[in-house]
Amino acid sequence: MRMAGRNFLFVPGPTNVPDRVQRAMMVAMEDHRSSKFPELTRSVLDDLKKVFKTETGSMFVFPSSGTGMWEAALTNTLSPGDKVLASRFGQFSHLWIDMAKRLGFDVQELDVEWGTGVPVEQYEEILRADKEHRIKAVLACHNETATGVTSDIAGVRRALDAAKHPALLAVDTVSSLGSIDFRMDEWGVDLAVSGSQKGLMLPAGMGILGVSQKAIGCMEGAKSRRCYFDFGDMLKANATGYFPYTPSLPMLYGLRESLDIIEEEGLENIFFRHAYLAEGVRAAITQGWGLKLCAKEPKWYSNTVSAIVVPEGFNAAHVIDVAFRRYNLALGAGLSKVAGKVFRIGHLGDLNELMLMGAIAGAEMSMLDIGIQVTPGSGVAAASNYWRTHDPIPKKRVSREEVIYASQQMGSVN
Ligand SMILES: *Cc1c(COP(=O)(O)O)cnc(C)c1O
């Protein structure tokens, strides 16, 4: 049956692609070896650096999703058998560990409670004890999308520095880049793995990597097999403004437009907007519905995704199914260990208060439909209270003078 109206997409990736980006991607194909092509390559690679907050790092874009960039990061800088330190606290941190093992690295894996994040103190202890510097890379998932947990990457850098440890710092920023503050240079991140379909508001299909000069220096000695994702081939071609193989033009034009949008709003304003919107969603969950987040403490709360624990005796997959089939609302599923226990609301990318009100209202109606006892309207009311009483997104505040001006324009008597 046809579903009228818009589909409400609130999975934490892919996110809503702005109309401007969609239009920018509707292009005729061009010669990717023309003399004009390097302008596009250079402009996107340069502007991406601002989003990663790096001046010294190199930017790579590959036809891939985020997962491929996990592989590129590891195989370009490590040799089989190299020791890697990593922690598991959700499906994405788990999958990166799984990949590292399958690629033949010796992974020291720390299992920590889901709902918490990178155990910085434990990292420091292990790094201090590793006097021979056998650990070659430290992996950290900045934003664990499965549980809605953000980790302290500056803290991981401090742990490495305190232990005077030279290991590379590799960070998954797939669901944080362009929505939660990330500082590649300041935090000394050597490999920043990202993708196109979350904060960058594009379709999936482009893997994006920020690589420090230190990590580039590891390339020569890294004996892992690699071919399509080889940094060397890409650096050589990018130096002249081209790619070693046919790049996806629509994706590059889409990225150009999304970088323009980010520049117009301002990166810091974007972080502020995500924090402010996330607080409203959390108000709906905890104050309105009286439910718990999967994230154990406020210090772990993610500003891009909230995982909501459904009460005992209910299946979260049921909420998601009703939301989709009855209300045309896509919520995020619980993955692996938290399957059936949580559903997720993605609050990242191109969105505002009222779009989120749709997601909150729809989640609430779906919960009521399957018998979860939340008070009708309570989520929306709590979010409304939060957003109305807190500073709106900078520059969006409407002053009294402006309101009066607007009413005069309409010929109002007051
Ligand atoms: C989405 C996501 C990935 C996987 O990215 P794909 O583009 O699906 O390959 C990896 N890590 C995190 C934290 C993510 O949110």
Q: Could you describe the 3D structure shown?
A:
The chain is an alpha/beta fold. The chain folds into two domains: 8-13 and 266-389, Alpha-Beta Complex (Aspartate Aminotransferase, domain 1); 19-264, Aspartate Aminotransferase, domain 2 (3-Layer(aba) Sandwich), CATH 3.40.640. Helix content is 41%, strand content 15%. The chain is built from 14 helices and 14 strands. The chain has a seven-stranded mixed beta sheet with strand order 2-10-9-8-5-3-4, with helices on both faces. Strands 11-12-14 form a three-stranded antiparallel beta sheet. It is globular, with a radius of gyration of 22 Å. The model has no long low-confidence stretch (mean pLDDT 96). Pyridoxal-5'-phosphate (PLP) binds at residues 13, 65-67, 92, 141, 143, 145, 172, 174-175, 195, 204.
Question: Any key phrases for this structure?
Answer:
single chain; 414 residues; alpha/beta; Aspartate Aminotransferase, domain 1; Aspartate Aminotransferase, domain 2; binds pyridoxal-5'-phosphate
